[in-house]
Amino acid sequence: MDKIAIIGLGYVGLPLAIEFGKKYPTIGFDINKQRIQSLKESKDFNNEIKDFSESSMLCFTSEQEDLREANIYIITVPTPVDSYKKPDISLLLEATKCVGKFLQKDDIVIYESTTYPTCTKKECVPLLEKTSNLVFNKDFFVGYSPERINPGDKNHTLTNITKITSGSTEKSAQKIDMLYKSIIKNTYLAPSIEVAEAAKAIENAQRDLNIAFVNELSIIFDRLGIETQEVLKAAQTKWNFLSFTPGLVGGHCISVDPYYLTHISNEYGYHPKVISSGRFINDMMPSFIVQKIIKLLAKHQINPIGAKIAIFGASFKENCKDIRNAKVFEVLKELQEYGCIVKIFDSLVDSDEVFKTYHIHLSKLEELQDLFDVCLVAIAHDYFLDFNYEKILQPHGFIFDLKGFLPKQTKKVYKL
């Protein structure tokens, strides 16, 4: 029987390890020893996995030597961008070197980490050959099956989505496809690794562009004095109108993956205009939102210097505790630059992680005693729906509902 090793146990790797661990001897590996200890105690600090009991063939480790026992390696490490918006594949290459040390004849390495087309064969495969002293497609084989994990989404989970698979040879591609089919309802076998890589890159780039379009509409309609949400509701009555809402675009996928696509495009001599413009619009939204709040403060005759603002939501998206690249902190810091006194609330996220990442102290709703000039509902967590924002507002204050999800009867509400 195959023995599978999952390299990286975050939002992508852990669900894979849990499912494979129900049917195959599976090693869940992560360099974070604290993470491994928690998982050994059946605790997932991301709150994505509740039940570990059925994964009887799964073991967790932070010891690289334990990987030697596997014959199928699945790499699921993060692939962010650096401060210059360039792909940072350092973790991917480190994981590749780690696997290469233990690679043996007929082993398979599958990559799930998002990257640009050609990266697997041009960057990862040579490193595997170098560290293993084996020959690609003769001694070992490679596949690419892009992750489609959506943190906080309880409907589109690992086992009930369609999973793209691919392999470096026809035989290895079939084996990889059958492997995933054993735990996932539907798979789609792509004709090449490059096709699978490109498909992943455009999935999130497309969504980024669609959100950028409605974000730009919100900028236009703001100048015209028209409510964007009402325009979108009216337009959605047409059968083929695509439904997207304006807002902050952060996280580790949608706001990152387009840069991988533009990177490889630039390397091949084409400088993409549409994708880059979409990124520009979405990256400027925190500043646009701050400018709108400052204007509303003036409208309500509130001095920005000393204005008390409560921000609700610290994750990058609703009903999720992931704070990676959460754009709400850009809004917070820019409001502070105007002299505003800002507190941020979110009981879903880890306060220590927030401070470690953004050097911001998270406040607690249960300790709330102040009255605020502005309540900025930045993230549409379900539990924010029932909160009485008006009870913590100054008489002259207002609510800014960034996602337009509060009940219509709520008074003093402005939307994006």
Could you please describe the fold and organization of this structure?
The radius of gyration is 23 Å and the shape is globular. It is an alpha/beta fold. The protein folds into two domains: 4-191, 3-Layer(aba) Sandwich (Rossmann fold); 215-415, NAD(P)-binding Rossmann-like Domain (Rossmann fold), CATH 3.40.50. Helix 9 (274-299) packs across helix 10 (328-337). It has eleven helices and 13 strands. A six-stranded parallel beta sheet has the order 3-2-1-4-5-6, sandwiched between helices. A five-stranded parallel beta sheet has the order 10-9-11-12-13, covered by helices on one side. Strands 7-8 form a two-stranded parallel sheet. It has helices at 13-20, 33-40, 90-100, 119-132, 170-181, 193-224, 228-235, 257-267, 274-299, 328-337, 351-358; strands spanning 4-7, 26-29, 58-61, 72-75, 107-111, 140-144, 162-165, 186-189, 308-312, 341-345, 372-377, 393-401, 413-415. Residues 310-408 form the UDP-glucose/GDP-mannose dehydrogenase C-terminal domain. It holds the Pfam family UDPG_MGDP_dh.
Distance between the termini: 55 Å
Order of helices and strands: EHEHEEHEHEEHEHHHHEHEHEEE
> How many structural domains are formed by the residues?
2
Structural class: alpha/beta
Summarize the structure.
This protein is an alpha/beta fold.
Chain-wise SSE layout:
Blueprint: E1 4-7, H1 13-20, E2 26-29, H2 33-40, E3 58-61, E4 72-75, H3 90-100, E5 107-111, H4 119-132, E6 140-144, E7 162-165, H5 170-181, E8 186-189, H6 193-224, H7 228-235, H8 257-267, H9 274-299, E9 308-312, H10 328-337, E10 341-345, H11 351-358, E11 372-377, E12 393-401, E13 413-415
Parallel strand pairs: 1-2, 1-4, 2-3, 4-5, 5-6, 7-8, 9-10, 9-11, 11-12, 12-13
Helix pairs in contact: 3-4, 6-8, 6-9, 9-10
